[in-house]
Amino acid sequence: MTARTPRLSRLRRLTPGRGEEGTGRSGRRRGATPKVVALGGGQGLSASLAALRRITGDLTAVVTVADDGGSSGRLREELGVLPPGDLRKALAALCGDDDWGQTWARVIQHRFQSEGDLHGHAVGNLLIVALWEQLGDPVQALDLVGRLLGAQGRVLPMSAVPLELQALVRGHDPARPEDVDTVRGQATVALTPGEVLSVQVVPSAPPAVPEAVAAVLDADWVVLGPGSWFSSVIPHLLVPELLDALVETKARRVLSLNLAPQPGETEGFSPQRHLEVLARHAPKLALDVVLADEAAVPDRESLADAAKRFGAAVELAPVARQDGSPKHDPELLAAAYDRIFRMHGRIGPWR
């Protein structure tokens, strides 16, 4: 038990009870659908959210805040705010399939094209930052944007302070392939030609957003991944209070693997190596299920062995788009999650 456990206990008292009579943030009868928290960032988290909103009415996204590239990086540097880009993408993924939802999804994802300072900025990034400045509360502002969009879920940052990602990389400089260097910045880490050995965040031991911790503690299921492994998935495990919640929660935990290695960041990684890297960064983390696309696992026995170290079973399912691109199909991924929740979850009223 760590020194942070009393704080987790206090947060637990702020969350609704886990019995059938409790109610969640939305006021729905507890247990009507599985209460799901998804962690990640970028396109991987967006794919997971687009699938999960199809099968549950109680969904929370906890989003990494280490992005330092593009529009987010410029706003972060100029205004000292959290990078809004991954939060915007999560909100867009939670928009409904009706005209209202899809119109607003396109609007907040729209990027200005110009010769001036607005070039490359996304409308949603500017909207989120404007509300942060107006309200002075990142969680309240994101909730308000969610209501405006009709988002089918809640979006929370994993930390209330912007983080810098640092990685130890072997061969970052191709002229020195055996040297290990410290590489700084999410954008640089994601594109390194070298081998990422480990990552950390600065400041170290950053504070978690209390609402994110409370959501993990009160969940029925926690979904980690898919996404950029070192820059979107693992950073959640580097926020001590959030990691404690992931270790201590009574929720079941599913890890959703990527469809293919990411050029640069995880070049040449097998599915089981993704698990090995995860274990090095969070040795106390347990999992219940590892989900992978059946066509992306050439060595099923090795993946099963790696999953057993987490106490997890492996579920293989066709979750990729049929066009051959390394992207998840929302309907197929939703079907896989639904089957996992029903077959591996505790018996609950949503069944």
Written overview of the protein:
This protein is an alpha/beta fold. 39% of the residues lie in helices and 16% in strands. A seven-stranded parallel β-sheet has the order 3-2-1-7-8-9-10, with helices on both faces. A three-stranded antiparallel β-sheet has the order 5-4-6. The two termini are 34 Å apart. Mean pLDDT is 87; it is low at 1-31 and 347-351.
What labels would you give this structure?
351 residues; alpha/beta; disordered N terminus; disordered C terminus
Strand order of the largest sheet: 3-2-1-7-8-9-10
Give the overall shape, derived from the CA principal axes: globular
Q: Tell me the helix content.
A: 25-40%
**Largest sheet, described in full?**
7 strands, parallel
| Broad structural category | alpha/beta
Arithmetic mean of pLDDT: 87
Oligomer: single chain
Taking the alpha carbons of the first and last residues, their distance comes to: 34 Å
Offer a concise description of the structure.
This protein is an alpha/beta fold and 351 residues long.
Which helices and strands, and how do they pair?
Layout: H1 5-14, E1 35-40, H2 42-52, E2 58-63, H3 70-79, H4 85-93, H5 99-109, H6 123-135, H7 138-149, E3 154-157, E4 164-170, E5 180-184, H8 186-190, E6 195-202, H9 210-217, E7 221-224, H10 229-233, H11 240-248, E8 252-256, H12 271-281, E9 289-293, H13 300-308, E10 313-317, H14 330-344
Parallel strand pairs: 1-2, 1-7, 2-3, 7-8, 8-9, 9-10
Antiparallel strand pairs: 4-5, 4-6
Helix pairs in contact: 1-9, 2-4, 2-14, 4-5, 6-7, 9-11, 12-13
